[in-house]
Amino acid sequence: MVWSTLLVFVAGACVGSFLNVVIFRTNEGGSVARGRSRCRACKGLIGVGDLVPVVSYLLLRGRCRSCKSVISWQYPAVEIATAVLFVVAYRLGGGELVVLRNWVFVSYLVLIFVYDLRYMLIIDQFTIPAMIFAIILNLWLGVMPAWSVLAGGAVLSGFFWIQFALSKGTWVGGGDIRMGALMGFMLGLQHGLVALFIAYVLGAVVGLAMMASGKATRKTAVPFGSFLAVGTVVVLFVGRPLIDWYLGLFL
Ligand SMILES: [Zn+2]
Description:
There is one protein chain. The chain is an all-alpha fold. It has 8 helices and no strands. The radius of gyration is 19 Å and the shape is globular. The two termini are about 40 Å apart. About 35% of the residues are buried. Zinc ion (ZN) binds next to loops.
């Protein structure tokens, strides 16, 4: 169990490393599959030995080997976060296929989280393929009733669509509508609504904390897609116990 967990951690870190490449190359319009990794400052090719997740960053002390410019801490942060999420999914279990499904879901949610945090956009290149995976995997594995998957997507996207229509696109964007659909398809109706609720609570808490510390004002734009992604991961992993605990408070 210890060795397999370690193996999952290393695999997760490697996936995280790939997700970083996807994030930067998607934003810069480059191909995700082709081309060796280059330093983002000096454009020099990075040696294979300097591409080991987390380890290379630490050995290089966060600087490019040739030009010594600072390497974004996003690299090790995403690698470690992905590795941890992969391990959590693995230890929670639920059967090999469910673990595999959760790894796919978590990978897309990390992409959406980081991309929105960095660029303030929830992009279709991530949400649409993720939706397709969510529908296929959930219906195929039968982890929840088909109606719940479909109703989840419809209700959660509808929730954002209404806000979009009422505000003529000033409160939320089209990306939020697709993100709502994705959450519903991934989690089903009931759990999807819980994830939505968590995202709003989290958004409020972080927003108030930032305003209190003077780092934000009422007008500061919020990467709400990142909060939605966090809510989705939380419910994906501990939705059932969380709902039981919450209901237990009132019964
Ligand atoms: Zn460099």
